[in-house]
User: Fold Prokaryotic-type class I peptide chain release factors domain-containing protein from Brachypodium distachyon.
Amino acid sequence: MQHQIRRCGGVAFAALRRVGHFPAAAAAAAATPAAWRRLTSPRLYSTADTSQQLPANLVQIMEQRMKLIEQRSAYLQEQINQPAASPEEYSRANKEFHKLESTMELIKELQSKQKEIEGLKSLVTNSVEEKDMREMAAEELLEAIEEEKQLQHGLFRTLLPKDEADERDCILEVRAGTGGEEASLFAMDIFKMYEKYSQKNGWKFDVLDLMESVSKGYKEASGTISGPGAYGKLKFESGVHRVQRVPVTEKSGRVHTSAVSVAVLPQADEVDVQLRNEDLRIDTYRSGGSGGQSVNTTDSAVRITHVPTGTVVAIQDERSQHQNKAKALKVLRARLYEMERHRLHADRSKLRSEQIGSGDRSERIRTYNFPQGRVTDHRVGITHHSIEDVMEGESLDVFIDALLLQEEMDAIASFTS
Assistant:
């Protein structure tokens, strides 16, 4: 793999460092001294390096958060055991309580280890004890301190600000943009790229709906991706993907620029989004044109309009009206859930929006240049020179890992603010 850095940032350097490309990273960093100082600063901490001692300021903040989590866990336990709690209150409290369980286990384990360390320190400094006993305690103390450090690192990772939807399944939506038939062909390529990437990760990929173009590309395509951490890995794929290549219909060999928009939405359940019948307008019609995989003569296609928000979802992929309705409701819940998440996170840090981007589907995030065989992600400034590997879903992690690393760096900055 060859990489080229277009602009230097912590994420670009760290991503290259992972795969052993020090020279390219160093050259890019040297051109931007401020970035180089930030990267080599002893205060820069990454959860990937557990050999480091956790900085004292982070330990202090972490201890404050631990107390808050213990208090919150105790409160939720009371709510769960409250006979007067409604089913919805119980469900929400139980869901949050189980989210905190693994963190609470780490907190208890760390506290137990710290008590062990205090006891060993007492043995080491106790002059009454025999020399052999003190030496044995000193050895055990060193081991316990190392174990404490590992526990602190693990706990710190769980306490970093994170997207609660990261572990969810997701819905992928791809739409052809500017570029006519060529855009629809590229939309098909992108949709299949994510299908191959899903298979590579052991995730389940199911097509929700396809609307074909005249050239058998995809005007629109949607699917569900189910697997551990699917949304967390793919969430930064939302945006405009631009392609530069010679269309199959171009006889003069001119390179055209086309674009498709990608949206990745976390799947929502009924607890997250409650749909009231009075808020829904459901229309049925016949699937037709070159869009339905199952064009037929019955009113199987379903269009659902969420009246309060004006959100419309149409599905015509299945022959069964019932199946299309179920799929449409799944997509509708995901869109409404994302709208609410966007509203709640509108004030996210300026650092994140500058370095990663808003994730808005109107933002150009990546360019696929076929004549030169390269793919460039404009948010992290990384170019990968094997476009075939990317389209096969093999090298997408070059960009995904860099974006996730940048997200972690932002989370650490947010943790300390």
Observations:
- The chain has twelve helices and twelve strands.
- The chain has four domains: 3-40, 56-159, 170-267+347-416, 277-344.
